Amino acid sequence: MPYIDATGVKLYFEEAGEGHPIIFLHEFGSDSRGWKTQVRHFSRAYRCITFNARGYAPSDVPDDPTLYGWELAVNDIAAVMRGLAVEHAHLVGLSMCGYAALQFGLRYPKRASAIVAAGVGSGSAPSQQDAWSRETSILARAFIERGMDAMARRMAHGQTRIQLKYKDTRSWEEFQERLRHHSPLGMSNTMARCQGVRPPLHDLADQFSTMRTPVLLALGDEDAPCLETNLMLKAVLPNAGLWICPNTGHTINLEEPTAFNAQLDSFLAAVERGSWRRGHPEIEAESDLKLEMTCDTRTKAVARYCNTPGASQ
Q1: Pairing of strands 89-94, 47-51
Q2: How does DSSP assign 108-167, residue by residue?
Q3: Tens digits of per-residue pLDDT, 286-313?
Q4: How far is residue 274's CA from residue 125's CA, in Å, rounded to a whole number?
Q5: Hey, is 201 helix, strand or coil?
Q6: CA distances (Å), origin 34, targets 28, 46, 51, 182, 253
Q7: Which residues touch 147 (CB under 8 Å, ≥6 apart)?
Q8: Is 278 helix (H, G, I), strand (E, B) or coil?
Q9: Residue 187 predicted with pLDDT over 60
């Protein structure tokens, strides 16, 4: 099996196709196999790279909890690029690794040619942060105490994942089966050290306001924990577009692969020809459209246009 060394931790990777590199970064509940539909499509024109994060076999599953964390996840992207002699790449990350892709864009602004951040933001909104801290701590223990069979069933039936079952039962069953075979130790350490203690995206708004990398934000409209944060990211990222897929939950690339691939195709083509949203020099970096966000007691984001001629108040 092919591996890349990331400061003593071996990361399993796969490649397909030729052209400008796209690195696909998997979510907490999946692994690199979750991108197979995207790899089949984009490897016709791109060099597609997938790898399993640390804690996800056949990558190493360290026993030491200190060998996990969001900063290490960002560094692992750089290690994969270094190991494969990739100077610049498009990054496509889902959920946990969509977060890592955005952080990579802040830390290595000249190495990410474009970023797709799908389903990012769980636990990030100010009203969610205390509950997120408690929940991640409980879940980290549950992977060890209850085992992967029970936790796979729980996660696959979650309110933002059950949509896949009713759209594509076979894909949902494959997703649950992949979960069952993950390491409970790897999942526990990843939840506790990577998910539970990461800085909320809302706290990084000032940093994101300086990031000029083209970004496509993508999420399902039934991925409720992520809606408010994506509106915030759209408001502060100066070169971002937001695509919301209707009647779709958290596993957006599995639920609606054709629509997801089409959006990525359009986005990457626009980036590469220099016409993505703010790619024209006559378009100012600051938009006239501002989003004022509030949140009700059920943590649902409400956005309205303000300070824009003709916008409803």
Answers
A1: unpaired
A2: -TTTEEEEEEES--TTTSTTTHHHHHHHHHHHHHHHHHH-HHHHHHHHHTSTTTHHHHHH
A3: 433 333 333 332 233 323 323 333 333 3
A4: 33
A5: helix
A6: 11, 18, 11, 13, 8
A7: 184
A8: coil
A9: yes
